[in-house]
Design goal:
Helices cover 52% and strands 10% of the residues. The chain has 136 residues and is mainly alpha-helical. The chain has one domain (6-134): Alpha-Beta Complex (Sufe protein. Chain: A). It has a two-stranded antiparallel ribbon with strand order 1-2. A hairpin with a 4-residue loop joins strand 1 and strand 2 (65-71). Helix 2 packs across helix 3 (74-87) and helix 3 (74-87) runs parallel beside helix 6. The radius of gyration is 14 Å and the shape is globular. The mean pLDDT is 93. It comes from Alteromonas profundi.
Length: 136
């Protein structure tokens, strides 16, 4: 299954009346990500700064970067899906130009996740932006 775009996710979340329904939508998005095989979950692929374990693999073909991700927590897997909707299969310049703060604001996300999850989300975004910078 292909993830919806970041704009589609914003529209979809606005449709729900409460955050319980929005959390379920985010969790369902996470379930659509295939995850990683166990042998790919190596220490060098762990994102530092996350409370849960998050593994990130980037693949750059000279034009766009794609990401393979996985987490041991279902809500974090859903948050990864939100990040992938913004960044996956984009050029390094497009990744760096994307207004991730505006995206998270539009989702009203950070008011509804714990501070430690928010820090982890920022760590994931920072890692992806660093990878993009290294490929510009």
């Amino acid at each position: 299954m292909q993830l919806p775009s970041s704009d589609e996710i914003i529209d979809d979340l606005a449709f729900f009346d409460d955050w319980e329904q929005r959390y379920q939508y985010i969790i369902d998005l996470g379930k659509s990500i295939p995850g990683l095989p166990e042998d790919a979950k190596t220490p060098d692929r762990l994102v530092k700064g996350c409370q849960s374990s998050v593994w990130l693999i980037e693949n750059y073909n000279g034009e766009v970067i794609t990401f393979d991700v996985d987490s041991d927590a279902v809500i974090v897997q859903g948050l990864l899906a939100l990040v992938l909707a913004a960044y996956n299969n984009k050029s390094p310049k497009a990744i760096l130009a994307f207004d991730i703060d505006g995206y998270f604001e539009a989702l009203d996300l950070e008011r509804h996740i714990t501070p430690t999850r928010g820090n982890g989300l920022r760590a994931i975004v920072g890692k992806i932006q660093d990878l993009a910078r290294n490929n510009v």
